Amino acid sequence: MKYDLTIVGGGPAGVSAGVYAARKELKTLFITKDWNSQSTVSEGIENWIGTIKISGADFAKNLEAHLRAYSRDFVDIHVGEGVEKIEKIPGGFKIITNKGSYESKTVLIAAGSFRKKLEAIGADTFEHKGLTYCASCDGPLFSGQDVIVVGGGNAAFESASQLLAYCKSVTLINRTDNFRADPVTVDAVSINPHFKIITNAISKEIKGNKFVNAFVYTDNKTGKDIELPVSGIFVEIGSNPTTYFVKDLVKLTQYNQIIVDPRNQRASENGIWAAGDCTDGLYHQNNIAAGDALKALEDIYLFLRAK
Fold first, then answer.
1. pLDDT digits (tens, 9 = 90+) for 156-199
2. Which of 86, 87, 171, 176 is the most buried (most CB within 10 A)?
3. Which DSSP string corresponds to 50-80?
4. How far apart are CA 73 and CA 186, in angstroms?
5. What would you report as the CA-atom Rg of the chain, rounded to the nearest whole angstrom?
6. CATH annotation of 2-114+239-305
């Protein structure tokens, strides 16, 4: 059979689209390896609108439960299945997975991205124990404390700006003396008296007992190791979008993000939409991903009904 729509991804974008697809009675194939979006690792999500606070694990469970409650006979949910390639065929697309292949008139890619991990001794040990990859998720837990942000791009400086609202101090650690962030962003954050920048610093080790209590870096110019007492470490060194299966089908940015029309989330190939962290959208958050997916779904519905 040929599906009306195939949704790839089990995070907030994919699930939001899946719920709306069921409500609009589109015959939909929903493919996800699991329900673990980036926020699943968070101890407490406090910015998911309508929910004051929820753990990342419960957030994932709620997403799954919501989709299953509405799926009925319209959404076929395939968990534990990974998309390997999507090909253009007459009248739609062929979705090739590690378990088979399917045909679909349209595709919504909501596969998200995965964070680049900090390469330092102890980073794995103290992940979720003071070391985190989501300032918007976990930042408020470090109110009144001294924290570090590792990175030199816009995301790092924006995270630092957010943390400065409630942390005692924020120190940004960058590998070189050049920043990938826009100069205006750097300048805006740097004027805060509780913000400090350390450049030419190579992350070496994370120390602690039950939780993080120190960060060690190597000064790239002197070769000396320097230890800083801190309570929290926020890593913002970039992410890799999950778009390898459409790299020959749609236009991507230099960072392999899917280029979309922000009005309707359409990709360059007619019949493909994308939403969430796998796109070139300026901002990536759970609520934004869900909203972009719904925008795409509305457009997909009109697209299908126009045929």
1. 998 999 999 999 999 999 999 999 888 998 999 999 999 999 99
2. 86
3. T-S-B-HHHHHHHHHHHHHHHHTTTEEEEES
4. 51
5. 21
6. 3.50.50.60
Domain 117-235 class? alpha beta
- What's the pTM value of the predicted model, to 2 decimals? 0.74
Q: Residue holding tokens 């960058």?
A: 174
Gap between the Cα atoms of 137 and 182, Å rounded: 24
At 41 the pLDDT is: 64
Span(s) in the chain for CATH 3.50.50.60? 2-114+239-305, 117-235
Q: Are 62 and 74 in contact (CB under 8 A)?
A: no
Q: How does pLDDT run across 52-96, given as a tens digit for each residue?
A: 988 888 999 999 999 999 999 999 999 999 999 999 999 999 999
The span from the CA of 257 to the CA of 243, in Å, is 7
- Compute the average pLDDT of residues 96-103: 97
